[in-house]
Write a structure and sequence with these properties.
Elements: E1 30-33, H1 36-52, E2 60-64, H2 71-82, E3 91-95, E4 97-100, H3 110-117, E5 129-130, H4 141-152, E6 158-161, E7 183-186, H5 189-195, E8 208-211, H6 214-218, E9 223-227, H7 233-240, E10 259-264
Parallel strand pairs: 1-10, 2-3, 2-6, 3-5, 6-9, 9-10
Antiparallel strand pairs: 4-8, 7-8
Length: 268
Amino acid sequence: MNPKFVLPKIGELPITTSIESICKFEKVPTKICPTEKQGVVVAADYVVNAIKSHKGEKPFVLGLSTGRTPLGLYTELVNRHKAGEVSFANVVVYSLDEFYPMSPDSPQSRNHRVNEDFLKYIDINPANVHFPDGTVAHDKVNEYCKQYEKLVNGCVDLMIMGVGELGQVGFNEPGSYSHSTTRLVQLSYNTRKNQDKFFSNPNEVPKTAITMGMETIMSAKKIVLMMWGEDKAKVAYDLIEGGITEEYPATALQDHENIQVVIDEAAA
């Protein structure tokens, strides 16, 4: 067998096995890092540079997500703050989602985890931290979501995000409408199943949550989205190279004008 075979020509360019890829199929800018640890450093660079280059009198507005994906990034940002590389004194934070109902002091609270893993270690003003309130009375939650939407829509300078294994963004489940805004949503069986390890009893996992909608997320001026590990390989493909479909809400982010995806080789 001759290993140096030549494929048919395209125009006048002979394509051989020795040529490297001449086409890219990414529909969003994507940085592939060898490991999650190295990806975290890249993502932290984006965050720190964005904060330090912010101009104007208004504070820099940072959107935060919860879950496992951003944990390494939060640790890296805390370390850089302690090293004097970045200050959060002029930063306002809006969190992406929260279980409903849920006390903010509960260990299972999404936003309690953000505070314990990140916010308590930096110099941010507590008055500048905004979480969805999981204690709002049920008959007032819709009005509350409208007010949260008014605060956050269009004001986020940088949104830090992960993606669920089924393409969820925040608690926007498969099938979420692209023009959805902050609202109370029903959690799917799969989502609740993935969360039950954090509860002493699976029956304690809330059936609903408050989340920014897809339109709210798309209103952010810039998005840094991270995916780590083989479990995210399918959704990484759908987001980076697939088509836009409400079956995978994350694919709607292909239409964002300023998004940066950071993934490790396992997810790639």
